[in-house]
Amino acid sequence: MKPDARGERSADLAERIPPPELPHAGAGARRARPIHVALVDAVISFVSQVVTIVWAETNKLRRDPMELLTRAVQPVLWLGVFGVVMSRTRAIPTGDMSYVDFMVPGILAQSVLFVAIFYGISLIWERDLGILHKYLASPAYRGALVSGKAASAGVRALAQAVIVCIVALVMGAHLRLAPLPLIGALLFIVLGAAIFSTFSLAIACLVKTRERFMGIGQVLTMPLFFASNAIYPLAIMPRWLRVLSQGNPLTYQVDALRALMVTGGRSGIGLGTDLAVEVSVLVLLVLVAARLYPTAVQ
Asked: Residue 273 sits in which domain range?
């Protein structure tokens, strides 16, 4: 995608973001609107702005589908090489399930992490092209701008999850395809992508240069991945690593995906706890990124 074309589309998007509904003032509105009506209007406006941003970001993906294929190479190699080799050595205890079954949710979470952690570079591009200034000058909620980016990262993660799951099925992984577990897995995939993309946006607001942002993203991906239960269970970790993994959102995403996706899989933490932690971290990061968003242009 050419920068000028992307800039024109994003600039048009900034002008199309619907403004928040505000109470009317003047002779025709002598009585203040009820607070619940104003609140409903604000929520509708917020959701409309988020959907507008998701639509624009999804259109970018539709025009450049090769991005998904190139990002799918690494998780496919992890499954096809590392997973097969480690399943033959039987060095990692995985209970009743095979190591490939155990590893599929972890590699899926890894692919979501790798897609989302570099998502903040789009903010730097928009700032360099002058588009971010238009976003911030628009009447859009800052939280809607961040939430729209996070939701669009979830859409990208879902597209890549399809590729990973197809490869896993070809390799003989035993995955659950029932509607309820599938919907639950999709929810945690979107939540994981939203968390790490929002974290990425917050980093982009602070570092402000592409080179520094890419360096920080590369430094963070491997520690987040290895300090989780993606490729080995928590039970065999040394105590210090287990403590770190318990503060890692990726651990809760993998735990939920393993319970929902794999036949015979069980949650070692609890699906309710997994969901509560993921939602809490996402809300906190959205608030932080929304607060930092205007500083990206300074």
From this structure: 35-297
**What is the domain count for the chain?**
1
Q: What is the identity of the amino acid at 90?
A: R
Residue 26 carries which side chain, given as an amino acid letter?
A: G
Could you identify the residue written with the tokens 């794999």?
A: 262
Give the Cα separation of 105 and 255 in Å (integer).
8
pLDDT tens, 17-74? 555 554 444 444 445 667 877 787 888 888 888 888 888 777 776 776 666 667 777 7
Residue 171 near residue 79, CB atoms below 8 Å: yes
Q: pTM of this prediction?
A: 0.82
The kind and range of the H/E element at 35 are helix 35-63
- List the one residue out of 100, 128, 126, 111 whose CA is nearest residue 231: 100
Question: Which neighbouring-strand residues pair with 262?
Answer: 175
pLDDT in tens, 246-287: 999 999 999 999 999 998 888 889 999 999 999 999 999 999
Residue 126 in any domain: the answer is yes
CB 200 within 8 A of CB 120: yes
Tell me how far apart the alpha carbons of residues 160 and 71 are, in angstroms, rounded to a whole number. 8
> Which residue, 112, 108, 53, 128, is CA-closest to 260?
108
Q: Is residue 30 part of a domain?
A: no
Report how far residue 67's alpha carbon sits from residue 119's, in angstroms, rounded to the nearest whole number: 12
Q: Cα 159 from chain centroid?
A: 12
Please indicate, yes or no, if residue 5 is contained in any of the structural domains. no
